[in-house]
Specification:
Elements (H helix, E strand, L loop, with lengths): L1 H27 L2 E3 L2 E3 L3 H11 L1 H19 L6 H21 L12 H33 L4 H6 L1 H27 L6 H23 L1
Antiparallel strand pairs: 1-2
Helix pairs in contact: 1-2, 1-3, 2-3, 2-4, 2-7, 3-4, 4-5, 5-7
Amino acid sequence: MAKNQKAFPVNRLVVDAILTAMFFVFTLFSFVIAGVKVTLVSLPAVIAGMLFGPSDAFIVGFLGSFMEQMLRFGFTPTTLLWILPPAIQGMIIGFGGKLFRNAVPVTKESSFKKNISYYLICAVAALVTSLLNTCVYYIDSKMYGYYSFQLIFGVAGIRILTNQLICAVTATAAIPVLVAVRKTNLLGKRKARVSAEDVSREMYTNKEIQHQ
């Protein structure tokens, strides 16, 4: 028993490290057009938030974004401001996953209501991130004199819409990962037992729906 309890935090740290590395890799393939960033970095944050909660998701977003900033711009007076939005996005998803535990799909045949709750959590986090990024763009542009006020806030609607579309893609892509991890012993036996109970409950619910 003690051995399994000690092994779980190690597995958790390993998964967090992998997700942080994934975040950083995705930043290499992201691009910005007139202040609108197109990227899939929210995928690791979604996975970390739904698997472990707000603290892990915050760390994954914070460290992944920090590495991106160091690689592209070095340390500047606004570095912390750029790091916070993706970290906060992960934290919101993590809190949402904890508050609405049943919103996390455990099988690919999860109910429509459960999937809606899951997507709403991710959408709210994406909206907050878009608003924060808009504010950071404005502060950074005022300090370094590039984008105008009209451009930054003029494309705010496009930024929000783009992030919502990306949110739908990453939330959908995260489902098979969450399902696979929760069905294995990757996170320790305790997690596996919880997952097995959830899957059994989900299958029973689906059977009832089919018989109605």
